[in-house]
Specification:
Elements: H1 2-13, H2 20-44, E1 62-63, H3 64-75, H4 83-105, H5 112-122, E2 127-128, H6 131-151, H7 158-169, H8 175-209
Parallel strand pairs: 1-2
Length: 211
């Protein structure tokens, strides 16, 4: 690109006559300039700091496939851009992120730490990532599952059982969540049954003591 700029500058300063080659050079240089600007914006932009459109809303992001196509376009230009290998490296990182995300999304017992780590990494990628909504849902599920696991290390009160069930009801369905919800509901039913029986026995004894 610097070579193209230099040639165009010389053509203007030395008043070269207009011809097809010069027009072609301008078109190629213009395309390269535009690609360079977009590439630099993608390299600089993070999800939380990317530019906004005129109406104050966030501009639409490239999809991963569009980014992949853009990287191919950079390597097909008539000149080399310094951003091309950096953007290719960024694309590789995004693809690694997607592969890791898919693996985590299939985990039977997802880790809160691992999911949060993926979400943190995603802020470096100024592209649309379809995995993000699912990861956020999974994070809430994983937090609930860890809460259930932690609570299960000690005797559960009826209040704790009801609280955990209420929290789980609003979450998106997940295999482990459904299994733990069923177990908690069963424990709650048994506990409430025992509480009711104990209450009846206490009332019966109180009645006996009055005579």
């Amino acid at each position: 690109l610097p070579v193209f700029r230099s040639l165009l500058s010389q053509s203007e300063s030395k008043l070269f006559p207009e011809n097809d080659l010069l027009r072609r050079l301008r078109i190629v240089a213009s395309d390269a300039e535009k690609c360079s600007a977009v590439a630099q914006q993608l390299l600089n932009g993070k999800r939380q700091t990317r530019n906004r459109c005129g109406n104050g809303k966030l501009c639409s992001q490239l999809t991963v496939e569009e980014l992949r196509s853009f990287v191919r376009q950079l390597y097909n230009l008539s000149c080399s851009l310094p951003q091309a290998p950096k953007l290719k490296e960024l694309l590789n990182r995004i693809e690694d992120f997607q592969q890791h995300s898919e693996k985590v999304l299939l985990d039977e017992r997802p880790s809160v730490t691992e999911i949060q780590s993926l979400l943190d990494v995603s802020f470096d990628f100024d592209v649309g990532l379809p995995e993000l909504p699912r990861l956020r849902e999974l994070l809430e599920q994983a937090r609930w599952l860890e809460g259930v696991q932690s609570a299960g290390k000690q005797p559960l009160s009826l209040e704790t059982l009801r609280r955990l069930i209420d929290q789980g009801v609003g979450l998106t369905s997940h295999r482990s969540l459904e299994r733990d919800m069923a177990r908690l509901q069963e424990l709650l039913n048994v506990s409430e049954s025992w509480e009711e029986r104990a209450g009846r026995l206490m009332n019966a004894r109180s009645f006996d003591y009055t005579f």
